[in-house]
Design goal:
- Helices cover 1% and strands 55% of the residues.
- Strand 19 and strand 20 form a beta hairpin.
- The chain contains one helix and 25 strands.
- With 332 residues, the chain is an all-beta fold.
Length: 332
């Protein structure tokens, strides 16, 4: 595999001016290809665990194929990566594992989440599964979580409970809010979180005061992303229309309370984009286009050693591959 480092000055898209209150421009310190072993490598997430990096993504023959598996790779330094595990569907009736997510559960283990899909006319077309690991290599038995045909896309832990948004994949095209006390049994906290415009992929983040923010993708009419907000017990939500279409939404809160989002953007060419998310104004403001294009995005985000580490996938160099970027953000 070609592990050539892509240098900022040669390959990065022009940096957009950050809003004045952000104190300057972001700097793309480095971006490198870290994996391209499968014909199609895509849909990433990233976590730092026990002083090591773990990146997860789907391997398959194509973006839409029936053979998806979850590859887990690990690194001590973010530069040299090796496979730690290959996770396959536990049920051959739903053969395609998709969109893996990884996080650290309150018990100190890694939690892996992915949905198994079957595009034939079967009763169960999607089932989300969870796996747990103490070291990132042995993932044990899969646990079916959520409801059949509701894709639980990502979970976020808060005060010992796991929260996530599942979206209907057969019949009901709605978003549903789930909660779990153990990461294994998920109950619907809010049966209909959002319904207009085919809501689907969503990331939840909790602020220090307990407020929950939800960045939500839509693919219907209209197709603009939404920012949902709620206070405990998270059964009454308000929302703002962000007025842009996105894919693969993820975001993190910085120590100074700013919010950085990574999504696929469609306006002005498909790309993986870093943006400031302003919950008061209800805006997503792009400040950096990562080297990307074509089939791309689905980023993992980790703040470490003063930099934002971003895993993502892209096909701008021909083969759909996994990339890792390090970004220095402007001061607040």
């Amino acid at each position: 595999m070609n592990r050539a480092i892509l240098v900022l000055c040669a390959l990065a898209a022009p940096l957009a001016d950050a809003p004045p209150e952000q104190g300057g421009k972001a700097e793309l310190v480095e971006v490198r290809k870290i994996w391209d072993h499968a014909p199609h490598n895509a849909f990433t997430d990233l976590v730092r665990f026990k002083d090591r990096w773990f990146c997860v993504f789907r391997e398959g023959q194509g973006h839409v194929s029936h053979d998806g598996k979850v590859r887990v790779i690990a690194s001590d330094d973010g530069g040299s990566w090796a496979s730690a595990a290959l996770v396959e569907t536990p049920d051959p009736k739903v053969p395609d594992l998709r969109d893996p997510k990884i996080c650290v559960a309150p018990d100190g283990r890694l939690m892996l989440l992915a949905a198994a899909a079957n595009r034939q006319k079967e009763q169960v077309r999607h089932q989300t599964y969870a796996w747990f690991s103490a070291a990132g290599s042995d993932w044990g038995q899969a646990v079916a979580v959520g409801e059949p045909n509701f894709w639980l896309w990502r979970v976020t832990w808060h005060e010992g409970a796991a929260y996530g948004v599942g979206y209907g994949r057969s019949g009901e095209r709605i978003a549903r809010l789930y909660r779990s006390a153990d990461g294994r049994t998920f109950d619907a906290l809010l049966p209909v979180l959002f319904a207009a415009g085919y809501p689907n992929e969503a990331t939840l983040r909790f602020l220090p005061d307990g407020t929950c923010l939800c960045l939500l993708r839509r693919d219907g009419s209209p197709d603009s992303a939404q920012l949902l907000t709620a206070r405990p017990p998270y059964t009454a939500w308000g929302w703002k229309d962000l007025a842009v279409r996105v894919g693969g939404p993820n975001f993190v809160r910085l120590p100074d309370a700013r919010l950085v989002a990574a999504t696929r953007r469609y306006d002005g060419g498909v790309r993986t984009s870093l943006q400031w998310l302003d919950p008061e104004k209800g805006t997503l403001t792009e400040f950096l286009r990562l080297p990307s294009g074509g089939d791309t995005s689905y980023a993992g985000l980790v703040l470490h050693d003063g930099l934002l580490w971003v895993s993502y996938y892209a096909s701008h160099e021909g083969k759909t591959s996994i990339y890792l970027a390090r970004v220095r953000l402007p001061s607040g």
